[in-house]
Amino acid sequence: MIFGMWDSPLFYLGPIPVDHLIVTEWVIIAFIGIIAMTATKNMQMVPKGLQNAFEAIILWTYDFFTQLMDKESVAKKWAPLLTTFFLFILLSNYSGLIPGAARIEGFQPPTSNWNVTMTLALITFFAVHIAGFSEHGGHYFGHFVSPSWAMLPLNLIEEVAHPLSLTVRLFGNIFGEEMVIAYLLFMAPFVVPSLIMALSLLLGAIQAIVFTILSASYIAAAAGEGH
Predict the structure, then answer these.
(1) Where are the alpha helices (DSSP H) in the chain?
(2) 38 within a domain of the structure (yes/no)
(3) Is there a domain that residue 60 lies in?
C-alpha cells in the first residue's frame, strides 16, 4: 500500500484480478441500488420518508437539467444517466473521508484512480454523440466540418479534449486530495487532516457537480438546435 492506495489485486475471479477500488465501486453501486429499490418498493400517492427524499432528488435534478438543455425531451432522456453520475461520483469522493478508510483492505476511493474517471468520461463521450445522432440523424456529423472542411482537425481535437479534460480534472483533484491527507496524517495526525477533510466535504460535492454539469452541457450542445 502506498499512501492509502493499494497497489496489488485483492483477489482473483478465475484469471481476472479484482482490484481494491473495484470492490469499493461494487459497494457504492449496491448502496445506490438498495436505496433506489427501497425508496420505490411501496410507493404512495403522498410520499413520505425515503420515497419523499428520493423523489425530491429526482425532481430537483430533472428541473436542473431541463434548465441546462434547450429541449425538455433531451433533459428527460439523459437525466437518469447524469443523476447517476452525480450520485456515484459524490459517494466515491466522500468514501475517501471515512475514518481509517486507507487502512481497510479492499477499500480505495474509485475517483482517485484515473481508470475510473476515464471510464466515466468515455461514457459521457459516447452519450454526447448518441444524443447528437438521435436528435439530428446523419446531419449531426456535419458539425465536424463546420464552417468548412479545414476545421475538421480542430473539431476532432476538441471532441477528444472533452473526455480528456473530464478525466484529468476529476482524477487530479481527488488523487491530490488523498495524497495531501495521507501526508498530513503521517506528519501531524488528527488535527490538520481533520480540517482538510472538512474542506474535502465541500470540494467533493463541487467536483461531482462540475463533472455532471460539464457532461450535461456537452450533451445539450450536441442535441441542440445549432447542429
Answers:
(1) 20-40, 49-68, 72-95, 114-136, 152-187, 191-223
(2) yes
(3) yes
* Domains contained in the chain, number: 1
Contacts of 79 (CB under 8 A, 6+ apart): 61, 62, 65
Q: Are strands 16-18 and 11-13 parallel, antiparallel or unpaired?
A: antiparallel
Radius of gyration of the chain (CA): 20
Q: What is the pLDDT along the chain (227 residues), one digit of tens a residue?
A: 444 455 567 777 778 877 777 888 888 999 988 988 888 887 777 777 788 888 888 888 888 888 888 778 888 889 889 999 999 999 988 887 776 555 665 567 788 888 888 999 999 999 988 888 887 777 777 767 776 677 777 878 877 788 788 887 787 777 666 666 666 666 655 555 566 667 777 888 888 888 999 899 888 888 875 55
CB contact at 8 A, 220 and 86: no
20-40 and 72-95 helices, crossing angle to 10°: 130
Q: What are residue 13's phi and psi, to 5 degrees?
A: -105, 90
Task: Please check whether residue 2 lies inside any domain of the structure.
Answer: no
Contact predicate 148/139, CB 8 Å = no
Domain contains 182: yes
13: containing domain: 9-223
pTM for the full model?
A: 0.78
* Cell of residue 190, nine digits: 488528527
